[in-house]
Amino acid sequence: MNRNTRRALRIRRAVTSGLASVLFTSACGIANLGPGAETPSLPASQPGAHPPPGDPSHFALGRTPTAQEIAAWDIDIMPDGAGLPEGSGTVTDGRALYIQQCKQCHGLEGGGGPFDRLAGRLPDESFPFALDPLAKRTIGNYWPYATTIFDYTRRSMPMNRPGSLGDDDVYALTAYLLYLNDLVAEDATLDRESLPKIVMPAHHRFTPDDRRGGPEIR
Q: What pLDDT digit, counting tens, does each position of 39-53 carry?
């Protein structure tokens, strides 16, 4: 019997022994309850949390969230700009924020680093991604909606502190990223009115998924 075989047998014995010990301990615990004893249950999180006997509708876990808690998570931005908050940001402010918060991951001027490249257009606005899986997808050549930049940045960036940026900061970073992709001027200021009006180069490459339970498109 070689060393690897012996090692495998020792591991299997250890696992089997451990499992048997757990089962034995559990069985003893149940036996020690004594005849007619009730199985202990976890305390309710609040009065009246347990459903009536036989009610299968829920498991008495959690509670109904408050309106404030729901509002804190209800931050998604629609392609048409619905949900965008008040505030504004400039390309200039966005450049400074990018250097502080984003350059280490996405490279100087969005050119790429440890993580995705963010800036870059393709000649003649070509769209080779279905044929060339190695083609680099950037904001300027792939993203169909400018509002997605705001939505994604606010909820997910920076990676080590997502959600830490204020709305003005997110507008400024969005403006700078659009500037890097030649989609706004260097003196641009973005807000909830101007951001949804920006038409991305790849906008016509996508079709909204509005199926009604089948393959047909409305």
A: 445 444 454 455 566
**4 is written with which tokens?**
């690897």
- Name every residue whose Cβ is closer than 8 Å to that of residue 143 and which is 6 or more positions away in sequence: 149, 200, 202
Could you give the CA distance from residue 145 to residue 152 in angstroms, rounded to a whole number? 11
Cβ atoms of residues 149 and 204 within 8 Å: no
**Tokens representing 154?**
């606010």
Torsion sign, CA atoms 178, 165, 79, 90: negative
Record the pTM: 0.70
Amino acid identity of residue 61, one-letter, is: L
Structural contact between residues 149 and 125, judged by C-beta atoms closer than 8 angstroms: no
CATH architecture of 87-205: Orthogonal Bundle (1.10)
- CB atoms under 10 Å from CB of 161, counted, come to 9
Q: How many residues make up the chain in this entry?
A: 218
